[in-house]
Amino acid sequence: MMCLDAMELEHNGTPTCRDSLAPATALTATVEQPHIRQGTPAFRRAVVALFMAGFATFGVLYCVQALLPGFSHHFGVSAANSALALSVSTGVLAVAMLGAGILSDRVGRRPVMVASLLVSSLLILATAMVDDWNTLLVLRALLGVSLSGVPAVAMTWLVEEMDSRALGLAMGLYIGGNAVGGMSGRLIAGVVADHGGWRAGIGVVGVIALLATFALWTQLPASRHFRARHAEPARLPARFGGVFGDVALPWLFACGFLLLGVFVTVYNYLGYHLMAPPYGLSQTVVGLIFIVYLVGSFSSAWMGQLANRLGRGPVLTLSFTLMVGGVLLLMLPWLWTMALGIAVVTFGFFGGHSVASSWVGVRAGALRAEASALYLLSYYLGSSLLGALGGVFYTRWGWIGVCGYVLVLTLAGVGAAWQVWRHLQATSDVQAAVGR
Fold first, then answer.
1. Burial letters 113-145, b for 16+ CB under 10 A, else e
2. pLDDT (tens digit per residue) in 340-366
3. How far apart (Å, rounded) are the C-alpha atoms in residues 361 and 368?
4. Which of 50, 150, 217, 371 could staple 364 via S-S, CB 3.0–4.6 A?
5. Alpha-carbon span 341 to 286, nearest angstrom
6. pLDDT digits (tens, 9 = 90+) for 242-258
7. What's the pTM value of the predicted model, to 2 decimals?
8. How far, in Å, CA of 120 to CA of 146, rounded?
């Protein structure tokens, strides 16, 4: 017999009926919640909320990149030390994302994302008020921890809650928010700083992040398909170790490491170069350089389609080769060649990241989650380590030193992409031989 007050939902959402003899599967089917479909009010609320969350996350993370020369002037630190304002955040973020995903498995996706963005908004506002360089770096390190809850969880929420036919558009809009946020954070902070100082630049970005937090909290629908689960620490080493059983995946991790390392290094120190003689450009003009990020929106989609026709190996190698050409253009002394060079580097970077990150998921199979986590770890460590090291080259040899440094890194990327391509061809040959 069934009664309305006999049925309960346990804390993990599993339906139970204490007095009923009906099969559990029947009850599950009765209370199963539909996934979010494209065109519904819930879909619109979800994509707006996550677009704003991605926008704020990457705006808060990268807004300091446009302010590095201002930090050097205000705090009296070198270019290498100034770059730590970004490097400490991305380095800590790389590691913290692993823990954020595990935490969301326990307490839920939505609470982790909302808390993550709220704390990050408060930390970036606090950063605008400090007057000690070491304190600023501590706050930026804490920001790396707090920010980890959005990129580590948002895609999982989408996969769990979206209807399969709506997932592609929803995921694309979220990633679009990431790219637009990264560009806008740099641009807004740079332009505002030119008129009101670096504190004002960071403060405006912090206020935008607070508004985005409110949008995420009020608009993101509650999770319907989340099932709390406990981590099994004893199994984690074996699962992560299993990823390295594929000979191509470590080379893809190296590609991610080099891609973001080169990209961040170029943008970190280009502002120093263009604001110094003989160019003497203003902070506003330097900030406008980040509009070239829009090239990446086209590059990601176009290079992905090209990879479907020509294969991922050739296109990933092409991406690094384009970046080599862009770096060579950046070494020339004319502003128009540098503008073209930064556009080519940006095009190659976004195309390469799109191909490499998707290839990781295809190669990893059942270990997709672990492989993706290791790729992101390598990716953000590239920003942290290689971006900071680039400051040493700038301090000692100026812009030419930076260009020589990233040229070596991009050539190494060509080699890493070729290694992935070679292993893919070897695998295909073996599969063909087995088929015969």
1. bbbbbbbbbbbbbbbbeeeebeebbebbbbbbb
2. 999 999 999 988 988 888 788 777 776
3. 5
4. 371
5. 15
6. 778 888 899 999 999 99
7. 0.78
8. 6
Report residue 147 as tokens. 């920010």
Are the C-beta atoms of residues 204 and 192 closer than 8 Å to each other? yes
What the block records as the tokens of 77 is: 């630190």
Query: In this structure, what token pair is assigned to residue 171?
Result: 């995921």
